[in-house]
Amino acid sequence: MGRTEPPMPSMAELIRQRRRAGFVGRVAERAAFRQNLDLSPRDERHRFLFHVHGNAGVGKTFLVRELEQVAQECGAHTVYVDEAAGSVPEAMAAIGAQLGRQGHRFKELERLLATHRERRHEAEAASVATLEPAEPEEPSTASVIVARAGIAGLGLVPGVGPLAQILDAHQLAEGTDRLRAGLSARLRSEDDVRLVLSPESVLTPVLLRELAEAAASVPWIVLFFDTYERTGPFLDGWLNEVMTNERYGAALPGNVVVVTAGQRPFDTARWGGLPDFVADVPLAPFTETEARRLLAARDVVAEPVVAEVLRLTGGLPVLVSTLAESRPADPDDIGDLSATAVERFLKWEPDPVRRATALACALPRRLDADVFRAVVDCGEDEAAGLFAWLRGLPFVSDRGDRVQYHDVVRVPMLRLQRRHSPRGWAERHARLAEVFGQWRAEAEGPLGSGELWADEGWRELRLAESYHLLCAGPRAALPDVLRDVVDACNWGDAPAQRWAQVLADAGEDTDAPAVAKWGRELLEALADGGVVDGLGLLLNRAGLDVRGQAVARAVRGSALRDSGAYERALAELDQALALDPELARAWRSRGMTHAESGDYAAGIRDLDRAHELAPDDARTLAVRGEYHRILGHHDEAIRDLDRAVELDPARDFPWASRGAVRNSLGQYDEALADLNRALELNPDYAWALARRARVWRALGEPERQLADLDRAVALKPESAWMACERGDALRVAGRHQDAVADYDRALGLDDAYASAYASRGVSRRRLARLEEALADLDRALQLNPDYPWALCQRSTLHLQLDEDDRALTDADRAVELRPDDAWVRTCRGRALLRLRRYGDARLELDHALELNPRYRLALITRAQLLVALDLDEEAVADLERARDRDLRSDGFDDSDLAGLADLVNDLRNRNPEADDSLRPLLSTRTTRVIATDRRTDPSPEPSE
Length: 944
Description:
By secondary structure, this protein is mostly helical. Among the domains are: 11-109 and 201-282, P-loop containing nucleotide triphosphate hydrolases (Rossmann fold, 3-Layer(aba) Sandwich); 288-423, no CATH class; 457-686, Tetratricopeptide repeat domain (Serine Threonine Protein Phosphatase 5, Tetratricopeptide repeat, Alpha Horseshoe), CATH 1.25.40.10; 832-944, Serine Threonine Protein Phosphatase 5, Tetratricopeptide repeat. Helix content is 66%, strand content 3%. Helix 23 (456-472) runs antiparallel to helix 24 (474-489).
């Protein structure tokens, strides 16, 4: 693919381009890059990746910016990403945003990124789509394999990487399975769980799809990743995958070129086998020829001066550019040989205001127009002129809405100010800390206390404030900043790493070894073991006060809970509460830990205490309401969810959870209103769609039911639960072949999904695939031996296979597990009837109808029993109560209906007076669902 030539510019414009920003040099590198864009991606000479590397000050960013301009001249659309991106999702956000400004809307990526940010902060704030209470299951075979490969889900969760070294493979697999179940108890779908655990797996396919759409309309897209020494640790593996394989369903389009720039060469273990696709661009200091050309472009041509510049700078491009900018006319103008290039630059600048501005603006780590005005005390017009001048300096990198000094220049500038006036240094940093503190306080206005750390803008202001406090008074500020690190850990690895980096930077910049050491050691701990290790370091050495220790242990306990390491989590949370019995967040986290490990009652008790301490915390109420829903405490669930909705009406989860409760109570109109509201707040809320589908089923709206489930599956194509839910709807509608396809898909995603096996077994039985049906039901009960629905379904299959004793054994166990379920009681009654234990069968069926007087399956089964006992009048009475009703929706298949027809015809022949009342039962060979039936009869379907 050749480049598209733009219209020919004027000669003056061409000259300006060649001298743009004083960039003279790196001619070979620029030419090689331009030539690469003249080659088709199919040409074997074309390179897909350029890696620029070299020591600080060697001109990597200058070259990257020049290559970016070259790419744009060749018709490319470009993206620039640096260390401002702290994770793969943030890098993807930068790609989408920058290409969006160039006319390519990454709509789906933007939506998922917003959901990702929300869900990361929501894991403790909501108990969303959950599993019904069940005994712990064995870890799936897939999880064991993943664990043995060393890439178990635990490694994807911030802060829990070290557990992989502590647990054996089976323990690690069990932890992974429990982790998924635990997060499923708090997030609305399996895809939301994946969005928290492994955002790259959800976001990358969308990025690649939308990037391919953008690339189809332009000659080239070039992605620049600068400061790769900082971003490479999290970007390098991901970048390798999207470039070299189709793990995410696609790779980068062929007309995308990637440029990375960092201090270190590429990891040869990862990239060494791709020499035909990668261009290695090592940068050394300018050659003498290049340095002379740059100086000549700035009219620095006197040989004594040039020789002195070459000697002092060592050819470092940033220093050569800085000295060239000041245009020294005499070697004496260069000054003391021991002086830095920065000091010489300031000496040459005749304007004292500009000299002071250049020094003062080195103090902030980054500058925008607001920070500049806070640093430089002058009028608006003068500030605008000075800021424009500053942005044009050779050592200042202009990054759109902000500028940043090159470290090679900023570090000696800071050192100069600190040594020249230690008191002035502290005063200026204190002033900046005060300014950032004021901005932070203003940002807090619309935010509640629980929302501060969730707000990225607030965090950035707090970071800047902390940096300047540390520079102004490291000893006084250090304890408070270490305490902030604890809170940052609560929001994951990336925020914690940014706080650690602030400590490292401030320690180096203000020459405070203790602060720098804390920064380095925290960065190492976080890199090795995430927030669990980082918090361990703080607890062991930071000298936190009692409250700080309690919060640190509470945060550490939450991270361990997210890993599925419930015992260790409970130990940390117990210690947190021993230190501070009134720490509501610890009570809430411990309650969630109890519940996720299966003890919902203990979880609710802890949440009760959390609610006493923080009665208006909507998160606690929402979580407790969800746990009450799981346990069938409908009144308590409604009470909590009502209050959660009142406190936080803009959050979708409490509406959806309350809708699910109201559906269970048969309050279908109210349930529909709640779920509609949840979906107004979040139209792509797949869990709410699945719940609303159940309401549509109850209201006799099968088309709307399947429409919602189709939408939910489209939103969450990799959700096993969602596929199984649609399979259940198709099964109830009698579409068993289609249902089996959905169950197959669910089991392909999760081969330890007991409910999918059980449901597939039922559909296979209806398709007369009896051996396969029995194998599925056996597997479901192997995974979950205490599964009443599967036990009753296997009991029914045993009856069909004439294994009546086995049928009764399964039904007996189901009644033990769920004695107050009319369907389970009826299941046992049918088995007893087959065994001709009529007295026991009559007692069982009578009990079922006491539980639900209108339950048709029990009525018809009891009618069969009464006929066997020659009690025709009572049998006719039961059948009359069941007439004009759709029996398929109660689980009757063709063979059941045929048997019912025989029974009805027999009774009509024996009781002619009952003919008119019984004849309607012969019209039940219909799949029509009657709303009144669904409102009154319990559904024998598995729960999620």
